Amino acid sequence: GQQVMQIPQYQHVQEGEDFTTYCNSSTTLSNIQWYKQRPGGHPVFLIQLVKSGEVKKQKRLTFQFGEAKKNSSLHITATQTTDVGTYFCAVVAGNSGYALNFGKGTSLLVTP
Amino acid sequence: NAGVTQTPKFQVLKTGQSMTLQCAQDMNHEYMSWYRQDPGMGLRLIHYSVGAGITDQGEVPNGYNVSRSTTEDFPLRLLSAAPSQTSVYFCASSYSARNTEAFFGQGTRLTVV
After folding, report:
1. Which of B31, B40, B59 minimises the CB distance to A104?
2. β-strand pairing of A10-14 with B31-38
3. How far does A52 lie from chain B, in Å, by closest CA?
4. What tens digit of pLDDT does each residue of B64-77 get?
5. For residues A104 and A22, is the Cβ–Cβ distance under 8 A?
6. Burial environment of residue A37 by CB neighbours within 10 A (0 to 12, 13 to 18, 19 or more)
């Protein structure tokens, strides 16, 4: 299936610092989704990006889809301890057109 | 609505035993899928279904069987458990296969000894 590389694998920040995670694909994506998983929890959908160059905001979270639709980023401004968790990007597998493939995720640790 | 319900939450199996992980959704979703999550490996797709009677393999299907006899249920069967199948298993569903968010169950933590 279609693969995405997600970096960094881990990030440790002080509360109040910013955080960014990136997803990169070698092929053009039809869309990209982002999920958050709290420790011990299950993935929860955050957002979907569809259009080239799209930027969406949810409070302190900013999501971007690259102009070539091959990369995406999630930026958190002024992190809080409630932001702790693993953030995944997910894309539809190219062959099937249905299966959702996930990146390996970025684990965010925020210390007060 | 209950959403996506997985049972059991925890399970310990001996090598060679079989078991079925249950997944049910009450949202009339067309698309259902199973993932396993291992440290550092993210979520890997095992099997998925785009509707009752239709299933297909994902990235890591070996050792697992599925069937989809109803829209609501999508059980995952381990025919002969191996220690390599120790993992956390998540079931997910979405309204359609394309461009819609996936709703996940709470997960089943499986240990094979």
Report:
1. B40
2. unpaired
3. 15
4. 999 999 999 999 99
5. no
6. buried
